[in-house]
Write a structure and sequence with these properties.
By secondary structure, this protein is α/β, with parallel strands linked by helices. 60% of the residues lie in helices and 8% in strands. The longest helix is centred in the C-terminal third of the chain and has 27 residues, at 225-251.
Amino acid sequence: MAPELKPVYLIAGTDRPKVELAVRRLRRHFSPDATDLLLAVEASGEDAVAACNALGLFAGGGRLVAVEGVEAWKAADAKAVEGYLGSPAPDTVLALVGAELKADGPLAKACRKGGDVLRFDAPRERDLPGWVTAQFQAAKTPTDAAAARALIEIVGDELQELASEIDKLVQWAGGEAVTEAAVRELASAVSETSGFVLTDAWGRRDLAGVLQAAEEIVERSPKQRRDEVARLAAMLASHVDRIRICRALEADGIGPKEAATRLKRHPFYVQKLYGQSRNFTEEELRGATLRLAELDHALKGGSRLSAELELERALVDVTRPAQPTAGATR
């Protein structure tokens, strides 16, 4: 493990693109087979601690235990983490990832004492144009308020989609100014094959639609093909994780409206997640998570096949219905 890393990081906030960027940067310190991914709706604080201690027994290098959705944890989970940080496993990092969390809550206090707390909060709706402009400025690409408003009008207020479109426009501009006219021409063209086209096709188990959407997105992207394939793989993996979270919430009797509040997501989007979760069994969703993790490993050097072929094979595996076991009756 890199010596500058701390035993625990709480990475949270409603600015999901920045949260996911921070998580990706942390994961770069670890090989894929040295990373354990957990969901807070399935794993308690004690489970996460046990994973850290178990990994520490045989870790030959740095290990990472990442827990997604820790806003669902209770005081007992925070207490388990606090106790663990009194004597953390060597060469092991615990990454707790969530949406909106109280800065003075028990989990934040525990992590602040033993590690670090990284908060990334999304702008309020009236400040969204400023957020868009700031992303362009960070990429050293001039723009103005009219272009920012046009992008929001075309793409919507979902930060991940906005961040993706901003990245494409920055690549296209090459350091030149992005005008409102450029936004309306270029963002309109790519919006037809946005990430939602891919995830929606996957959610209804439309294999032909999934493959077509993926192909069009890769073809239209100004990024290197491998980079765009990696982005799509990460996007779908996050989508599957959210569906698993919604499935667990529904099993606890929590409806889409309350789930949207908990997840800090638009109610329409969460309603869609609930609907898509009914098209898959829990085993299929768990299998999809593992298969997409294999894809991530392949794209990072674990395969000699092309990135597009690895993506296509993975999309087929996670979309088509599971094959019935031998002897199963219809």
